[in-house]
Design a protein that fits this description.
Elements (H helix, E strand, L loop, with lengths): L3 H26 L7 H27 L1
């Protein structure tokens, strides 16, 4: 079994966590942001997933 797919999945997970952490930092830096930890975490990962989807579209477009 190739380790490449596992490595790519791990890299994708790490990038997702990085994007979510950056989004969370943005939320918490805004004094007007409302919500608790659960809402912030959900929103952060929603933004991270959107960023990964956009990234995938751009990578696919470059490869065409």
């Amino acid at each position: 079994m190739s380790k490449l797919p596992q490595a790519l999945a791990r890299e994708q997970d790490e990038l997702r966590d990085t994007f979510a952490g950056l989004a969370l930092m943005g939320f918490l830096s805004n004094a007007n942001t409302q919500g608790g930890p659960k809402e912030f975490a959900q929103s952060a990962y929603t933004f991270a997933d959107a960023m990964l989807a956009e990234r995938a579209k751009r990578i696919t477009k470059k490869e065409e």
